[in-house]
């Protein structure tokens, strides 16, 4: 049994592994009191056979000088110390690390780590093996003797640089001579350490490093392209305006019609298949059908026998990484990645993209090349082709943009597309269109893509997973819950490692598990907001709108490779360079910043000084420091000086830095009317205009003929129709629900009846109820009871009293059988919270009536410039005369506001505030008028904008919320925004 074999030490790699680790730990603990220097820090030895000095003496030397003594040879043992070994033993050993004991003695004597090569017992190295050249001339070394030491090691930094430079040269040499599977051009230009003007751009100290880094960094290219396409979609939309899409006409003759009158919502998610590989294969058609990976590594033996820095310790690093991923970040995927991929001499180059043939062998995007080669030794690697990615990505976006610009760019090879409007206009079959589009993309790019379709973004993305590779799939709403049930939680949007861990700890692994538990339970685990989202998502409900015009929120420049400083000046020079880089990115997007953040990666205390990944960052602690400027800036000197100050504040020795990033956020737009209240300005302007034409004041005509604009007179609150009365009247009226329903279609119907009827229908829609935030839902349900009771009772009475007349009005009334409520749901809440709320309501009302709070209104915008309505009553002059929405010019102001490109939050809040005042004053008619007019303005906007839809919904929700809070019921509006993209968006 495996358990017996490993003596219960399975998780420690078996008994012997556990024993070896224990010995190491004991050695380290015992060394501490004797330590005099860290000369051998990060270096471990194993003594094989008789040596001079003896094994015991060597052990003591290691103790005193910070090294590690291995009682057994381990994969991460740096050197094997021996005098003479039998041939048969040597044949099975890695001879490149067998050295004479004299090396230890000499190092101690010279007080520095010497080149071990002269001490090698066997010198038959392979060409691809590391041949570390420690050989700088004594003169050179002495000339640099003032160089700061790295982490108390005796080797000077200059020496180290020399060593590294040599390693780089060796690496390049090895790469050129290696017999690898690599099919790229021999003069590989993908290495980040490629020579610049004949000199190796070694570390961030080199002035040429930064540009070289960005030229080669795949993550930089991906991020730049992704942000670029978000901007590109914005620009295309703005340039296109309301023009028709010429290419749509062609579709009609090419594709079949949809069956019936299909009004369903269709969102498409489209994603290129193994993007980087597909683009790369355009130049290597002979490799199609083979396992291929795009990576910086040359593959072949140079990926399984990589040079390792003598001071790197993969084993230690592996353990540290794995612990951090697992314990701190709950990221098992990355922990497994290091555990299985950090083997000695295996390439730590990442695979950016691999073909589906490689995936069939277990290889995945992001895997280390060394590990991938173990799974599939015949794996071929091809180099990056950043220009090709750009070209294909543009072709993809341009192809889709011929048909619609309702595109949410996700990345260079991925987007969401709202197809509903186009399909309805053309009456096309959705999957026929998707097939046509995919074919067109392939024809233009030579690369395959897959597409998923669903009624929202989540389902569309899920459908793409089914479709891949080179396919398409429609995930219907009916199949959604079932499909989702089998999905693991980490596939849901916004569910990261932390949340997955929490849910897993609670025994929840799949969306199916989640579907079975109550929302209250989820709320306890995750908090209200996350719980509500995940509760919907696990059922395939996704209320996120597509965002077409994405604004950049920040720009940044980060480097986490090659950061090896020895002096503060080097670090400062680099920070200046990086500041200039991020500044140029800021200028590119024509913005200014108010918030500067410096992010640094600092070598973790327990991490080896040198990293397993050559020039990588290794195990680090992250720090960040920010400064908020008084004024937005795009001045490079300001940015640079702030960055330098932030770095000083971090108080980190330069040699401990492993990564540096600068982020500029709180971006401003030149010409943007910042946080200034647009509405306020417009009202002031208009009131000025009106002062010039005083006669218009009392006879302000409605801006829109179809809207019946009540004169801004000031009838007493009591005389205005109260919705509670409306509701009561409605339920007391001698009309059934059906009557009310039929009235909704007649033009003569009063707002009161319509309100009541549509309220009935909207409030009892279980889907809408399910989408409401829990607290609002409870309130709605609580209120609903009163109305329902009267309606049900009335309907019953009606049906028995008036069966003859009602028979004429078939169909019979539809009672709310769809309601998910129990009888107890209809009882008024008796909870303490409800009673407190009730008391607050009463207080608020009486306060509002008593005070009319003029000072709040003034605080909010200084409306005293506006003229009071001509008929305002003297007893409520303050609030009523100051409320924006009771002014004669409110329509013009609203119209001007809606003409602006997007609503500012401050303005939306202002309108909310004004409407809440109207509620306090019982001006419900005015609220209806305002909302109707507002809604029509938004609908008639030339450029449809979901931001305005969202603003409208937010204001409407605020009204409902406040109504429920103060009066216990809501208002129902005749007009509504019906936008497929965002109508379900919750506020
Ligand atoms: N961490 C990442 C993520 C992505 N990419 C690059 C390589 C991918 O080819 C491309 C697109 O990313 P995808 O996640 O879409 O992956 P692929 O297109 O390679 O595969 P799939 O067919 O699964 O979409 O972006 C990368 O280099 N590193
Ligand atoms: Mg892809």
Notes on the protein architecture:
Helices cover 47% and strands 9% of the residues. It is an alpha/beta fold and 987 residues long. The strands form 5 sheets. It has a 5-stranded mixed beta sheet. Helix 9 packs parallel to helix 17 and helix 39 packs parallel to helix 41. The N terminus is likely disordered. The chain binds 2'-deoxycytidine-5'-triphosphate and magnesium ion. The site of 2'-deoxycytidine-5'-triphosphate has 15 residues, from helix 9, strand 7, helix 11 and strand 9. Belongs to the DNA polymerase type-Y family.
Say which molecules are bound, naming each kind only once.
Answer: 2'-deoxycytidine-5'-triphosphate, magnesium ion
Q: Which regions have little confidence, pLDDT < 50, spanning 5+ residues?
A: 1-16, 125-201, 693-769, 783-836, 845-877
Largest sheet: 5 strands, mixed
Helix-strand makeup class: alpha/beta
- Return Rg in Å: 36 Å
The number of E-state strands comes to 18
Proportion of beta-strand residues: 5-15%
Q: Name the overall outline.
A: elongated
Helix content: 40-55%
Average pLDDT level? 74
Widest sheet, order of strands: 11-12-7-13-14
CA distance, first residue to last residue: 59 Å
Number of helices: 41
């Amino acid at each position: 049994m495996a358990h017996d074999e490993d003596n219960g030490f399975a998780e420690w790699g078996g008994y012997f592994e556990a024993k070896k680790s224990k010995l190491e730990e004991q050695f380290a603990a015992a060394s501490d009191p004797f330590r005099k220097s860290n000369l051998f820090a990060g270096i471990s030895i194993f003594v094989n056979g008789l040596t001079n000095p003896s094994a015991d003496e060597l052990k003591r030397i290691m103790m005193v000088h910070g090294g590690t003594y291995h009682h057994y040879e381990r994969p991460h043992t740096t050197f094997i110390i021996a005098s003479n070994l039998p041939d048969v033993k040597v044949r099975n050993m890695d001879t490149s690390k067998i050295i004479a004991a004299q090396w230890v003695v000499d190092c101690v004597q010279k007080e520095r780590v010497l080149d071990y090569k002269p001490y090698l017992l066997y010198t038959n190295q392979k060409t691809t093996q590391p041949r570390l050249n420690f050989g700088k001339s004594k003169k050179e070394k002495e000339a640099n003797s003032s160089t700061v030491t790295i982490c108390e090691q005796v080797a000077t930094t200059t020496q180290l640089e020399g060593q590294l430079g040599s390693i780089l040269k060796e690496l390049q040499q090895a790469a050129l001579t290696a017999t690898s599977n690599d099919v790229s051009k021999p003069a590989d230009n993908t290495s980040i350490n490629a020579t610049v003007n004949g000199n190796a751009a070694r570390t961030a100290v080199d002035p040429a490093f930064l540009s070289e880094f960005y030229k080669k960094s795949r993550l930089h290219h991906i991020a730049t392209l992704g942000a670029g396409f978000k901007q590109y979609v914005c620009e295309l939309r703005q340039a296109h305006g309301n023009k028709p899409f010429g290419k749509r006409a062609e579709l009609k003759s090419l594709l079949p019609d949809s069956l019936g009158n299909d009004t369903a919502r269709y969102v498409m998610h489209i994603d290129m298949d193994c993007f980087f590989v597909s683009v790369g294969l355009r130049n290597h058609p002979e490799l199609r059908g083979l396992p291929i990976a795009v990576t910086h590594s040359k593959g072949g033996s140079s990926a399984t026998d990589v040079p390792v820095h003598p001071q790197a310790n993969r084993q230690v690093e592996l353990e540290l990484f794995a612990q951090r991923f697992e314990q701190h970040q709950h990221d098992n995927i990355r922990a497994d990645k290091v555990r299985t991929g950090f083997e000695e001499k295996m390439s730590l180059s990442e695979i950016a993209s691999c073909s589906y043939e490689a995936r069939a062998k277990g290889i995945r995007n992001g895997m280390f090349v060394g590990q991938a080669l173990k799974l599939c030794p015949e794996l071929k690697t091809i180099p990056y082709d950043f220009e090709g990615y750009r070209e294909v990505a543009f072709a993809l976006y341009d192809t889709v943009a011929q048909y619609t610009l309702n595109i949410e760019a996700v990345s260079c090879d991925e987007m969401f597309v709202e197809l509903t409007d186009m399909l309805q206009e053309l009456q096309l079959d959705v999957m026929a269109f998707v097939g046509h589009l995919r074919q067109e993309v392939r024809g233009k790019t030579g690369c395959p893509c897959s597409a998923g379709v669903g009624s929202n973004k989540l389902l569309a993305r899920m459908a793409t997973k089914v479709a891949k590779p080179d396919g398409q799939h429609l995930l219907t709403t009916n199949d959604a819950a079932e499909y989702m049930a089998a999905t693991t939680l980490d596939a849901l949007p916004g569910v990261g490692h932390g949340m997955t861990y929490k849910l897993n700890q609670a025994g929840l692994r799949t969306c199916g598990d989640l579907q079975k538990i109550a929302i209250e339970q989820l709320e306890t685990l995750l908090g209200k907001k996350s719980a509500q989202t995940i509760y919907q998502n696990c059922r395939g409900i996704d209320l996120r709108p597509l965002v077409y015009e994405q604004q950049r929120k920040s720009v940044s420049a980060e480097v986490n490779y090659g950061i090896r400083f020895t002096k503060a000046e080097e670090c400062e020079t680099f920070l200046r360079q990086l500041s200039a880089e991020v500044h140029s990115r800021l200028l590119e997007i024509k913005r200014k910043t108010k918030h500067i953040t410096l992010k640094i990666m600092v070598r973790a205390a327990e991490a080896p000084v040198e990293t397993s990944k050559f020039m990588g960052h290794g195990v680090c602690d992250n720090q960040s420091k920010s400064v908020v400027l008084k004024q937005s800036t795009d001045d490079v000197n300001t940015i640079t000086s702030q960055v330098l100050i932030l770095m000083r504040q971090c108080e980190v020795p330069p040699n401990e830095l492993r990564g540096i990033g600068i982020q500029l956020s709180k971006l401003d737009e030149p010409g943007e009317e910042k946080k200034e209240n647009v509405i306020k300005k417009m009202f002031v302007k208009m009131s000025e205009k009106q002062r010039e034409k005083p006669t218009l004041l009392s006879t302000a005509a409605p801006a829109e003929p179809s809207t019946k604009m009540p004169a801004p007179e000031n009838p007493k609150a009591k005389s205005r129709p109260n919705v509670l009365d409306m509701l009561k009247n409605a339920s007391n009226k001698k009309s059934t629900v059906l009557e009310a329903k039929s009235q909704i279609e007649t033009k003569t119907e009063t707002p009161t009846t319509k309100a009541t009827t549509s309220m009935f229908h909207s409030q009892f829609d279980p889907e809408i109820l399910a989408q409401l935030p829990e607290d609002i839902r409870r309130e709605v349900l609580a209120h609903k009871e009163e109305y329902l009771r009267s309606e049900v009772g009335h309907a019953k009475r009606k049906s028995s009293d008036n069966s003859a007349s009602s028979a004429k009005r078939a169909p019979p009334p539809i009672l709310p059988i769809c309601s998910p409520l129990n009888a107890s749901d209809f009882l008024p809440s008796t909870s303490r919270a409800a009673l407190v709320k009730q008391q607050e309501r009463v207080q608020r009302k009486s306060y509002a009536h008593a005070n009319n709070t003029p000072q709040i209104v003034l605080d909010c915008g200084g409306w005293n410039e506006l003229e009071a309505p001509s008929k305002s009553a003297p007893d409520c002059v303050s609030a009523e005369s100051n409320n924006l929405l009771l002014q004669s010019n409110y329509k013009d102001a609203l119209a001007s506001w809606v003409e602006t490109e997007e609503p500012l939050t401050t303005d939306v809040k202002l309108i909310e505030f004004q409407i809440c005042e109207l509620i306090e004053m019982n001006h419900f008619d005015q609220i209806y008028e305002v909302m109707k007019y507002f809604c029509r303005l938004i609908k008639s906007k030339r450029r449809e904008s979901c931001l305005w839809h969202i603003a409208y919904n937010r204001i409407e929700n605020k009204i409902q919320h406040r109504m429920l809070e103060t009066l216990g019921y809501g208002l129902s509006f005749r007009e509504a925004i019906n936008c497929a993209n965002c109508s379900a968006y919750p506020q």
